[in-house]
Amino acid sequence: MPGLIEVRNLYKEFKTFKRREGVLGAVKDLFVRDYQTVHAVDHITFHIEPGEMVGTIGPNGAGKSTTIKMLTGILVPTSGHLQVSGMVPFRDRKRYTKRIGVVFGQRTQLWWDIAVIESFKLLREIYEVPQADYVRRLGVFDEILGLKNYLHTPVRKLSLGERMRCDLAASLLHNPPLLFLDEPTIGLDVLAKDHIRKFLKEINRVYRTTILLTTHDLTDIEELCRRVMIIDHGKLLFDGPLAELKARLVRFNQIKFFLKDRGQAARVSELTTDGVECERLDDLTYRLRYDRRKHSSGDIIRNIVTRLEVRDLIVEEESIEDMVKRIYTEGQAYFGPGAAEAEELPR
């Protein structure tokens, strides 16, 4: 059954040329240019069902934003099949834009010099939202985001966090079934990020809004998305549940333990072996970091309690930040042929 978003072999290339240095180089560029082809999005395939919240991650220049721009109709694909809600975004622009909401973290869709509420009224007219629906949705958004304190403030006087809340509300005034978010929490403080995440969860729960999120903030992914796509050098390296990604790629575990007394500290060095590193946090607290492919958690714990008297210990998984850093560094090595066998863990 077709999903809300259907993408098959989507490909986008750009032609660029290398500029020569100096005045003489600039003159030569006027007559002869060295063009290069950049494969921004390289034959990726995926589909997204209604109501899903999907996170897309990847390093800078990986092709994430280019993919979003093709899905929103801003860019035309070089080749491949792309259909959203039964429409081709770049062909059905007028009809299609009424079915989506878009928020780019560093750009605003609000009018800079007028009050926020006036921008909302203009958007209501543009999207032909009935007055009753407009009032009801604005009330819901205010309840979650706390908009009323700055509805009558010009956009240029808002903080980044306040403006982002207003941009989210503006993108959803016409109740689109699909919302595209590109770095929606970039530059925000912890409290503002928390408001945004709570709002997105509630919109997805109440209105079943499908959300495609592109971000570098992995906490956004962990708190909002069960499914994640990893794009690097234009290729889709992984598409599946976040839990599966962690199960496949979490290579290291950590055990933090607390010694009964300082007299135990002299024997801590006995725990260090191949694939096991020990870090001292304070006089009584240490952390062991171990390779899960070589050691099981059970063996490590038994080794600790056999050699040392401890008050307590805590098992910690490798953070998603560290895991994604490794993916960015080693790329397709984690997802190519034989990757699953390479990541087989001890029982």
If you average the pLDDT, what whole number results?
Answer: 85
CATH architecture label of the largest domain: 3-Layer(aba) Sandwich
- Tell how many strands the DSSP assignment holds: 13
How much helicity do the residues have?
25-40%
Shape: globular
Strand percentage lies at: 25-35%
Q: How do the strands of the widest beta sheet line up side by side?
A: 5-6-7-3-8-9
> pLDDT under 50 segments (min length 5)?
337-347
Indicate the topology:
Layout: E1 5-17, H1 22-31, E2 35-48, E3 53-57, H2 64-71, E4 79-84, H3 93-97, E5 100-104, H4 116-127, H5 131-145, H6 160-172, E6 178-182, H7 190-207, E7 210-214, H8 218-224, E8 227-232, E9 235-241, H9 242-249, E10 252-259, E11 276-280, E12 285-291, H10 297-307, E13 310-317, H11 320-330, H12 339-342
Parallel strand pairs: 3-7, 3-8, 5-6, 6-7
Antiparallel strand pairs: 1-2, 1-4, 8-9, 10-12, 10-13, 11-12
Q: Can you offer a commentary on this structure?
A:
There is one protein chain. Helix 5 (131-145) packs antiparallel against helix 6 and helix 6 (160-172) packs parallel to helix 7. Helix 7 (190-207) links the parallel strand 6 (178-182) and strand 7. 35% of the residues lie in helices and 27% in strands. With 347 residues, the chain is of the alpha/beta class. The radius of gyration is 25 Å and the shape is globular. It has a six-stranded mixed β-sheet with strand order 5-6-7-3-8-9, with helices on both faces. It has helices at residues 22-31, 64-71, 93-97, 116-127, 131-145, 160-172, 190-207, 218-224, 242-249, 297-307, 320-330, 339-342, and strands at 5-17, 35-48, 53-57, 79-84, 100-104, 178-182, 210-214, 227-232, 235-241, 252-259, 276-280, 285-291, 310-317. It folds into two domains: 5-246, P-loop containing nucleotide triphosphate hydrolases (Rossmann fold), CATH 3.40.50.300; 252-317, Alpha-Beta Plaits (2-Layer Sandwich). The two termini are 39 Å apart.
